[in-house]
Specification:
By secondary structure, this protein is mainly alpha-helical. The chain has one domain.
Length: 357
């Protein structure tokens, strides 16, 4: 019997878990999944509309494979630094080795590439809670915080770019929306990290039962994952690592441009990365298929790069990133004795985070 299945039975009972597995196996219609697929198909249509197929195929055939392999290796290296960053974020909860954290991060991103609803974010929190015997809610809070740090870094990069050169109005509008979302989110988490315990104690004292009381209980553990926000040195370290991670990602975009013979600057590569990553915030199918291609084309259009070459670049860049992390993640998932089905079963259960704490 699979190890995680045994653990699920321990928490919920055999009949409950078997019912969840059967539901997962036989579920035919999931509105969220099909909406995501529909959005991906729409953006794929926009990306391929009016395409010169001969130019697309020629551009892909002419790619410099050695540069592409080098860029992929550089991209994969960012996950080691993501592992370091996540370790720092959870130091006040539990000390875990960098290599283990790196493996968990890769598994999470792999899961996002294959399963809908960004289950990879939940997968990381659930796997680390089971393997390292820590609170799933605290670990999930750190994942949320990590994503906010990524968003703040990307917005910061966009602000630097906008100050250096003029961009179309849609770029400024995208930047304003993203700035509002991420900086408000960051501010909220800082306040929650500093004042959350006091607020939760007051709420729990007034509402000991019911939905509000249960929510207060959930947030108690969640706030533990925000402890690092009380430490200025840890915040500085996480900000530095976030900058390093995204700088390496920019270099990856730049090298792939060079592999296609696209003669743009590294600043242009940074701009395309920003547009692509803000664009993929739109819910879509697993792996950001469609949205990734469309927004890379949109970013490159600012520099006058033709649609066929832009799409060739987008397809190859996305494929290199997708395949490298997906294959590596599947290998690492197997290494720790889990399967994607295990993640699907737990991710769909609303009480999982409460029960695993």
């Amino acid at each position: 019997m699979n190890p995680i299945f045994k653990r699920l039975i321990h928490y919920y009972g055999r009949n409950t878990i078997q019912a969840q597995v059967n539901d997962s196996n036989h579920r035919k219609f999931s509105p969220g999944k099909w909406v995501g697929i529909g959005i991906s198909l729409l953006f794929l249509y926009l990306a391929f509309k009016g395409l010169d197929w001969q130019e697309l195929i020629k551009s892909i055939k002419d790619v410099n494979v050695l540069l592409l392999l080098a860029s992929t290796a550089i991209y994969v290296s960012t996950y080691y630094f993501r592992g370091i960053r996540w370790r720092i974020m959870l130091l006040k909860v539990k000390k875990i080795s960098v290599w283990k954290m790196t493996e968990y991060v890769i598994i999470g991103f792999m899961t996002n590439n294959i399963l809908p609803a960004r289950l990879g974010e939940f997968a990381r929190a659930l796997i680390i809670s089971g393997k390292e015997k820590m609170s799933a809610r605290a670990s999930f809070a750190s994942v949320v915080l990590e994503r906010v740090f990524d968003g703040v870094t990307i917005v910061g990069l966009l602000i630097v770019l906008v100050l250096q050169q003029p961009f179309p109005q849609w770029v400024k509008q995208m930047g304003m929306i993203a700035t509002g979302i991420f900086f408000m989110g960051f501010l909220f988490l800082i306040i929650l990290g500093h004042k959350g315990e006091i607020w939760i104690e007051k709420i729990a004292g007034k509402f000991s039962g019911g939905i509000i009381g249960r929510a207060a209980g959930f947030m108690t553990k969640f706030v533990e994952g925000l402890e690092m926000l009380k430490d200025k040195n840890q915040i500085a370290a996480v900000l530095f690592l976030s900058g390093l991670i995204w700088s390496i990602e920019v270099f990856n975009y730049f090298l792939v441009m060079k592999s296609f013979g696209i003669g743009l600057t590294i600043g242009a590569a940074a701009f395309v990365l920003v547009v692509a990553n803000l664009g993929i915030m739109i819910p879509s199918s697993p792996g950001n298929v469609g949205t990734m291609q469309y927004f890379i084309i949109l970013g490159l259009s600012v520099y006058g790069i033709g649609k066929s070459l832009s799409l060739a670049y987008a397809l190859v860049l996305h494929a290199a990133m997708y395949l490298s992390i997906t294959v590596l993640g599947i290998i690492l998932l197997s290494k720790i004795g889990l399967t994607l089905q295990d993640i699907k079963v737990r991710g769909r259960n609303r009480d999982t985070f409460e029960e695993t704490d």
